[in-house]
């Protein structure tokens, strides 16, 4: 930090298991990746190459390498896993992870229909090779999953070997955890937390209001995902109570 | 592409007459242009320097040159043409195209009132010097043009020498083809397509939902315009059915 | 300017006391700052490092130096002043300004409750060391300040030594001068202008529609603040009547 302010909430340091932030890279250039890492490196715990953007990304190897040499692991978005599975190309997917020497992978079923046992099977197989993040919740606004099902699925996926589960939102911040308006489904989140340990969940929260909401509910060291690179500095100030939105919230705690 | 996935829709390659994407540059720095070209070069068919941004752009020559040396033609937004015309400076406009050795120009009447015969006249004159894109539709929400008029104007402008016609939207994605909500005027688009060949039209579609809509209506190789540089990688994945929004749509075709 | 167009409104040049534009930097990398300065330097009158982003900004000294060597002063957002004051660390704040050799500072009370006399006191003290910008209006949607109070506070703050007063909006463009919808509180603005000289006010107007509104009310050389770096080129074209939104407005004046 550049100067000393009293009564600042205490953030975890890397490598973190809570207070974790996952970035969504949806097509940064190599130079932008360098800038992102230089400017926000301490706050980036992991980077997701959004959905299947890796398919059309120039210099994919170099990009992954820049992140890696800054100590930041990279993984492919869950939609890519689904794209391979639906095409019966799961073996090719395994080889792909190997080719790019990725140590993380995401298992999801946001765009495809996958029996839950089969999903857990994929988690089990993959978790022998890499660290698995598994995503719960549908990208389809019509498929509303009741809270007890979220919990059941999260538990089974953690048991199957997932390192953490991700609470799904669409990249724009609707569907899944959120209503169409972008508002958080508060009852859902609270019910999940009665059963699943907080540090096992990453909440997708691409919009500022959502980040504020989760910080106020779960504190400075909540795990957040799908954060845009340009929002990292702003998010860090939210976590520290140094932006209007969370200024009072943290001061009232001291 | 970085790896092989089966059943991916087949995209046209450059130089394309369909599956065409026009970028909107509204003030990129030279370094950002280099990055854009390096990262997305294969997908950028042409770049519009938005409205009259070229008036205040530093290093305009260098910017055009970076695009050109990557094989990407550049043209000035239609509002600049209108700014010259309304000031009785059309001759200066011709000299300007010459000074920057531009091979494309846009003729529009979104901000000025121009008799349609006169507009066609400009198209005729300009098309002797450069390749002309002409834009149909008003930027003024109050001026609603009925479908038969869109069609009539498009036909006349193509006859006058326009290479392609552009279906107008405001840069933010309202007005023209879109309702205030950003929603596409579906009946209008469908009626236009009964009369004008698809490959002769570029649809302005700056917002993701609009891009999805046009891709679902006209397929992977629809011509789209006013695409922000940061949206090029995401758009390419939409065209390929590799993002949630178009995932099912394309899979169902195989 | 890259070419000659007749009947373009006449913009002031640097150093400006009107026609002033304040940029909001909320986490640019050093390279992005270089680009911003190179591309838009003539239009950037001053840069605010948004709220307390300076706390977590890497290479803060270098960043300030790049701006400074381009002749652009930098200051810390008002929320940082408030964060020091609420912690009884005002002395540390003075030292901080000194350490970074800043010649501007902002005094505000958007997130804390501060008696107005005390606020004016801070302005008086600070204005002996640096040039003070003071901000009027609350970030809290519930605290609606009636027009006569805005005027009274602005007058007192100018009397206390503020160089200019800033009409507050949240960074996203709601609250303060704006309704929740982002719409400008027109009556408020007009009433303020009956009492406070226009050149003494900087209007925060992060959204395009707000910029258009102020330009149409106060002309090309209105002072605007909280402008995103990417919006500088577009804003300059709005000021010059070279974008659809203000095209007619200026033409009608010639």
UniProtKB/TrEMBL annotation, chains A, B, C:
PANTHER family reported for this sequence: PROTEIN HEAT-STRESS-ASSOCIATED 32, PTHR48413
Similarity annotation: Belongs to the phosphosulfolactate synthase family.
Pfam families in the cross-refs: ComA
Domain of life: Bacteria
EC category: lyase
Key words of the record: Lyase
Organism phylogeny: Bacteria, Pseudomonadati, Bacteroidota, Cytophagia, Cytophagales
Protein name as it appears in the record: Phosphosulfolactate synthase
Documented EC number(s): 4.4.1.19
InterPro entries according to UniProt: Aldolase_TIM, ComA_synth, ComA_synth_sf
Molecular-function GO term, any one: phosphosulfolactate synthase activity
């Amino acid at each position: 930090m550049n100067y000393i302010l009293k009564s600042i909430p205490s953030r975890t340091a890397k490598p973190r298991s809570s207070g974790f932030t996952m970035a969504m890279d949806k097509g940064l250039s190599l130079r932008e990746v360098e800038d992102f890492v230089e400017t926000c490196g301490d706050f980036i715990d992991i980077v997701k190459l959004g959905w299947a953007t890796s398919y059309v990304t120039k210099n994919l190897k170099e990009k992954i390498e820049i992140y890696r040499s800054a100590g930041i692991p990279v993984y492919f978005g869950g939609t890519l896993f689904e794209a391979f599975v639906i095409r019966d190309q799961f073996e090719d997917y395994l080889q792909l992870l190997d080719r790019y020497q990725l140590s993380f992978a995401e298992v999801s079923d946001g765009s495809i229909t996958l029996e839950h046992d089969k999903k857990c099977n994929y988690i089990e197989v993959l978790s022998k090779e890499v660290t698995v993040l598994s995503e719960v919740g549908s990208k389809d606004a019509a498929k509303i999953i009741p809270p007890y099902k979220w919990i059941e699925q999260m538990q089974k996926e953690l048991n199957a070997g997932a390192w953490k589960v991700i609470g799904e939102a669409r990249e724009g911040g609707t569907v899944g955890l959120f209503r169409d308006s972008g508002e958080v489904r508060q009852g859902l989140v609270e019910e999940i937390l009665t059963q699943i340990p907080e540090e096992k969940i990453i909440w997708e929260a691409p919009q500022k209001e959502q980040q504020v909401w989760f910080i106020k509910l779960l504190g400075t060291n909540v795990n957040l995902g799908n954060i845009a690179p340009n929002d990292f500095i702003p998010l860090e100030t939210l976590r520290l109570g140094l932006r209007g939105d969370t200024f009072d919230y943290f001061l009232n705690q001291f």
